[in-house]
Hints:
heterotrimer; B: mainly alpha; two-stranded antiparallel ribbon; 4 strands; disordered N terminus; C: Rossmann fold; four-stranded antiparallel β-sheet
Amino acid sequence: MTHTVQVLVLGLLLGGVYALMASGLTLLFGVMRIVNLAHAVFVLVAAYLAYVVFQALSIDPIVSLSITMPVMFGLGVGVYLLLFPRIETSPRYVEMTVLLTFAVALVVEGLLTFIFTGIFRSTRPGYVTDAILVGDLFIPTGQLYAMVVSLILLSGLWAFLQLTRSGRAIRATTQNRTAAQIVGINVRRTSALAFGIGMALAGASGSLVSFLFPFFPAKHWQWVALLLALIVLGGMGSIKGAVMGAIMLAVAAAFVSDRFGPTWSPITFYLALFLVLLVRPQGLFGAKLRL
Amino acid sequence: MSGIPIIEGPLVREAAPDLAPERPPGTMSRRITLIVVLGLVLLFPFLARPLFSSYNYVMQLGIVLLMSIAMTSSWNIIGGFAGYISLGHGVFYAIGGYVSALMLVHWGVSPYLSAPIAGLAAVAFGVVAGLITLRTRGPAFIISTIAMLLLVLLFLDNWELVGGTDGLNLPLSQLPVEWLKWPLYYAMGVSAIGAVYLSYRVAHSKFGLGLRAISQDETKAEVAGINTRWYKVTAFALSAFFIGTVGAIWGYTLTYIRPVAFLAIAIAAGMVLAAIIGGRGTVAGPVVGAVLIFAVDEFTVRQFGQTALNIVVAGLMLLTVLLFFPQGIVGSLKASAKLPAFLDWD
Amino acid sequence: MALIEVSEIVAGYGVGPDILTGMTLSIDEGTSYCIVGPNGAGKSTLLRTIAGFLKPRAGEIRLQGKRMNGMRPDQMLEAGVCFVPQDKTLFPTMTVGENLLMGGYLIRDRALLHQRLDMVYETFPTLAERKGQHAGTLSGGEQQMLTLGRALMIEPKVLMIDEPSLGLAPMIAEQIFERIRGFGSLGITVVLVEQNAVRGLESSDWGIVLDLGSKEFEGPASGILADPRIRELYLGRQLASKEEHR
């Protein structure tokens, strides 16, 4: 029994970070119908950034959030304005975003490999090797802190979307882009803002990832499938769905890992992805992946 | 044109005397191109001998280029004609490579003999995978092909029979060094010619017409009575064959194979990239694209060495094409009616 | 003075053909307009172009003398030009109240915002009754009322409505036309596009007949209704069927 709870807890802890990663991705789809295959590689960019400031300036990775988030926000707005307005009018727009972001992912991965080589990197703050014991439960502090940070950021995101004017604009644009224009929302600016926020969330995830997993440039492809599985399950465009999907799949993967070994845990995500796409493409809460 | 009666008063008169059937313009230049290109491909090993000092390297380039052409033209059948972009086509490459390697290691069958069988194995997998993935469309399909690739990678990495991540060692060819590359080269050549010919035949068939209808508007195609499921799965499976055969041959050139050698995203991306740059949906496009990517790749390696900058350049090229001329080189030229006849094979 | 002036506008979608082929007309303050014409004449396209959803390929659009070509929809709205398209452009998972509040997005002053909201509830009591209901669950007529109510939130100078009666039962459509007729007294210049030409013209002061992307004819709405040539060419079928139902 305790063993099951242990696995469950580990799954939940990880689920929080996955939820954070996925929330940015699903926001991008919701607001702009962009399927961002480059999301995970930008998480890596932030991870490398966190690594660099950790090595050079001994800045704790969680503290580095204050650097990675603004940097990635700016990068996000820049990338959006540079690339996406041009393809807005393409037929098969969503498909184009897949290809476009795929190309971006290749470029960024190449640059990261060129600069940092394929060596596994990670930041090693003290709390990575510590753990808290709650009864018989073993809770690694690193993952606990990451989970807490994720929760705080996700709550912040929720508050922003519900309570601020810009947040309302983002939600409105997500629901009906034309209607948003009709009521006077500048959807171009709202989209850029949403892209920036999505990237900032990726940035935060990167800081957390830097001490949770050893990373190398090609690792992002594993996360791409994982994240897509999460948001497809939760429903693309729904942040609530992303969080639910993250928790469900992370816990499922934890059990798979426990039973069959860690190398097999990614299978949870791939199979989930196929199943959802085939059986209920709109996932739990989302809009259908229309062309 | 001849034989259409024009009703004029009470009489019916033939519209014009019988003319000899007209040749479409450009046929001559197309025939010449075909002869020249085929000649070059067949005679290259002989011509290269006296011309290049680093003979084996040049032969290797030829092998890689022909393989590229075979893969890109094959991909185009599903990705270009049918409009279903698969980023996971590396699985066929891997299946071809591993089926052939296993037959070599366990039963001593020469890859040149097992290549077609490897191709058929890839086709079989294509049917099964196609039946599943092709239930989705557009962006969902692209994502499902990525998942397919990663799934196959995961399986192969963990399967002891094929050596998993430790890889599989293949027995070396017994040929003397100077002739070593020749059969490999010609095997790739046959695959490349086969793939382009297959592409040509599909483009000019009712099947190809149906695929194009599907890529334009699948719902309308369905309504018009086309069995879109059958068409799509067949296209997907057909596109697997030559990718499987070149996978088999390529495995043999490597002599030591691991799953990632076939399933790296960069390889799957390369096919897509070349087809899009050249112009997917055309017959000549993938060939043009493959040659261009090959040239740029070689150039990058010459300038900067074998670094990750290759991917950067590939990605930048894809970005440029997507943003500025998404129909690719051949496609854009065709759209603005500036396509030279020798490239117009549709 | 002319509120909106459109001169020789040429417009089309994507790389497609020109739908508007040199459209010229002017909208004056205080008059209500109805644009009619056969399918494909460019009625919706005209409204979309004025509202900023479509960039004209040639020609000029002026609002109170100022050139407005290429303005974004949100900029046009700030200038007082509100557009209500024919597809459902409500926020489906938001409530009636939330949809109306979104209509007042450009209003920064909270007090004013709520004042307007109360005003809309007064004008449309049905909406007040359903203020907590999700917009997606409303009936066709109620949704149309919500769209109109939402447009009223910013008290536009010009309100362009594309096919307000589309898909509505005749009695409900009647109610909608009633409402629209009342907008004039609120100081809003209404421009309707209506397939139901007769009802549309009956509700308006001035009629504009479009065909093949440009203006064929314009004049007092009652005159157009009465003119036998125009009735035959552009309104014939509807009038005939209306006569049958009498």
